[in-house]
Amino acid sequence: MDHGRLTARHVIGHRGMPSAAPENTLAGFRAAADAGAAWIETDLRVIADGGIALCHDSTLDRTTNRVGPVADLRREDLGAIDAGGWFGPEFAGEPLPSLSQLIDLLNERGLNAHLELKLGGGGRLEARRLVESLAAELERLAPGRSVVLSSFNHLALAHAKRELPQLEAACCWDTSAMPEDWRSVAEFVGAAYIHLDQLGLTPQLIGECLSAGFVVNAWGEPADPRMRANQLFNWGVSGIFTDHLPELL
């Protein structure tokens, strides 16, 4: 697998292409590919039988026709959950996807992915189960496809990096909550990337990250995505996660 770093000025479909299709669905990832995106981002949660579902929230309530914890699901439940009808009738019946289905799509469409590890209250056992399942699924990733692992849970990310040293890792922070010892954390993880919220992001902070040897990617939805992206790229950011792909591609 080719896991070279992103070059400058990459636009990444945040949870697919949520301006045109329901977030974190195969329809959304296909829409991102159709729009010309080379990279998408999604969220991984381990479920009750060790499978991995793609869902940002810890519960199903916001983006499906069901309620309750994602962690309680089993693989056979995913296809019966409607993750698209809330967005529009044309997406009714769009299932809650698995990581296995995403790998198939990455291979089919030539996409690359940022995979954010989401953890609940399951502690070390949950993190281990998530990473073990992730490692097994990535065995099917086609040559030439690239994956970056990211998380706000830096201990889980460090475990993932130890188990999957061939992959690059990204430490995520809200810019306003970035700790003074952020460099020590990122080095402990073995991260190559720093992912920061655009809100409050400054050229000084970006410069500090770059000087320390990290690649910076930014997320968030400003009032004028095109103008803000241009500014951030000029400051040295390498990638922008966006809900508005057509405006930035």
Which descriptors would you attach to this protein?
TIM Barrel; globular; 9 helices; 249 residues; 9 strands; single chain; disordered N terminus; 8-stranded parallel barrel; alpha/beta; 33% helix
Which class in CATH terms? Alpha Beta
Instruction: Please tell me the overall pLDDT.
Output: 95
CATH topology assignment: TIM Barrel
The stretches of 5 or more residues where confidence is low (pLDDT under 50) are 1-7
**Ends: how far apart?**
26 Å
**Count of helix runs:** 9
Largest sheet: 8 strands, parallel, barrel
> How many domains in all?
1
**Class derived from helix and strand content:** alpha/beta
> Cα-atom Rg, whole angstroms?
17 Å
Give the neighbour order of strands across the main sheet: 1-2-4-5-6-7-8-9
- CATH superfamily label: Phosphatidylinositol (PI) phosphodiesterase
Helix % is 25-40%
Q: How would you spell out the order of helices and strands?
A: EHEEHHEHEHEHEHEHEH
Describe the structure.
The protein is of the alpha/beta class. The chain has one domain: TIM Barrel. It is built from nine helices and nine strands. It has an eight-stranded parallel barrel with strand order 1-2-4-5-6-7-8-9, surrounded by six helices. β1, α1 and β2 form a beta-alpha-beta unit. It is globular, with a radius of gyration of 17 Å. It starts with 9 loop residues before the first strand and ends with a helix. The N terminus is likely disordered.
